[in-house]
Amino acid sequence: MAASCPIPICRVTDMRADCEAQVIEAVRAARADRTPVEIVAGGTRRSVGRPMLNENGQALAQLDVSGLSGIRKYEPEELIVTAGPATPLAEIVGTLAARNQRLGFDPADWSRLLGSNGVATLGGALSADASGSGRLRHGSARDSLLGFHAVNGLGEVFRGGSRVVKNVTGFDLPKLMCGAFGTLAVLTEVTFRVYPRPTHSVTLCLKDIDAANGLAALRSIAHSALEPAGLAYLPAGWLPDIGQGAALIRLEGAPQPLEEKVTMAHGLLGHAHAARVEDGIDLFARIGSGALFADIEGDIWRLQVAPADAPRVANDLNAPRWLGDWAGGAIWLAAPPADAARIRSIAAAAKGQAMLLRAAPRQRASLGLFAPQPPVLADLTRRVKAAFDPLSLFNPNRF
Fold first, then answer.
1. Average pLDDT, the chain
2. Which of 10, 84, 194, 313 lies 20 to 30 A from 19 at CA?
């Protein structure tokens, strides 16, 4: 790949790299001038985290890697796909669907929530660890990423993981890249494990149930052998005619086993009756991507807590607009900017994490994506960053 790609003459202004060789040259140019860069591909998640500005308060030079796109190797029989990180999610999803396969972590496209007109990419979902409702069954993005190629802050190519499912040697670098938001390296190739795509799905809706009982019902399904593909609680106001709220259960499989799962689910729910929802797949996609909050005013947060703590956390938050995904493990809410400290305090008390996904630039600059880390963890984070990007060239201060 790199040998056939011409190496451009780089200046540290906005740069573009269409192959690994060009990424190396661009990083070395930035390193020589000690000039940080913002790594951009589809651009849909640029407004997540602190605004990336230089010491003069101006926008950083961009390293455009949107050319690192396309599926490079797809082995349906081995359940493996290798692609450029800038490959559009729609292309990946469509190609896999043609062979009745899919990405297990249900990559979440935040474009609608963030008001972005960009193109959601595979590398963007990976870098944000943006997992949708399907995370319940197959794990998050970090559980599906098998290997990657990247360029570090020294302008050196390195690899992590392997193109096989079982890889137990060395450090688990793929997991480190997930959720790093491009602050450690410039990805140039990624390899994911894929999963069979079930032929049928059913979404059950348990209506007129309060948050405590609805989330308890979802936890009973999560702890069963049903392998649910989605478990969410929507309080009153999200759907018509649901009374106090609705517990949603998505099940998948071939027709006969799926009907057996539905029967088993009703048994676990006791005397409660769960009706079937026709547009369940689209509904869970909107839940997992935060799209339901796109037109709601205020800051948008996503808290990750233990599902058993979700009822108490939701009660303490007392937000007029919220919902619980992942059986309560992910709580989405809209809140005024003044509530930021209270929200993070509630998350910390539950030993969870509060992520500020959407807010005005000044609010994001003040609060950051996550709450400040404890000193020991913050020191470890700095040392990891220094090992990969010693001059802090990549997406500096984003966290």
1. 92
2. 194
Q: Are 290 and 303 in contact (CB under 8 A)?
A: no
Name all contacts of 141-144 with Cβ < 8 Å and 24+ positions apart.
Answer: 141/105, 141/107, 141/178, 142/174, 142/175, 142/178, 142/179, 143/104, 143/105, 144/103, 144/104, 144/105, 144/192, 144/193, 144/194
- Global pTM value: 0.92
pLDDT in tens, 112-144: 999 999 999 999 999 999 999 989 989 999 999
Spatial contact of 355 and 399, defined as CB atoms under 8 Å apart: no
Report the C-alpha gap between 399 and 350 in whole angstroms: 22
Cβ within 8 Å of residue 82, ≥6 positions away: 71, 72, 73, 74, 163, 189, 190, 191, 192
- Write out the two tokens for 287: 């839940």
Contact 326, 135 (CB under 8 A): yes
In this structure, the dihedral spanned by the alpha carbons of residues 18, 24, 28 and 31, taken in order and rounded to 10 degrees, is 90
Phi-psi region of 326 (alpha: psi -120 to 50; beta: other; left: phi over 0): left
What is the distance between the alpha carbons of residues 226 and 174, in angstroms, rounded to a whole number? 29
Residue range 166-221, pLDDT digits in tens:
444 456 889 999 999 999 999 999 999 999 999 999 999 999 999 999 999 999 99
Tell me the three-class secondary structure of 323-373, residue by residue.
Answer: EEEHHHCEEEEEECHHHHHHHHHHHHHCCCEEEEEECCHHHHHHHCCCCCC
CB 357, CB 333: distance < 8 Å: no
Q: Which helix or strand (DSSP H or E) is residue 283 part of?
A: helix 280-289
* Mean predicted confidence (pLDDT) in 277-285: 88
Kindly state the tokens that stand for 165: 């499912």
- In 3-state terms, what secondary structure has residue 231? strand
Cα separation, 128 vs 122, in Å, equals: 10
In 10 A of CB 254, how many CB atoms?
10
CA separation (Å) from 8 to 15, 149, 230?
A: 10, 21, 47
Predicted pLDDT at 3:
44
How many percent of the chain have pLDDT more than 70?
Answer: 94
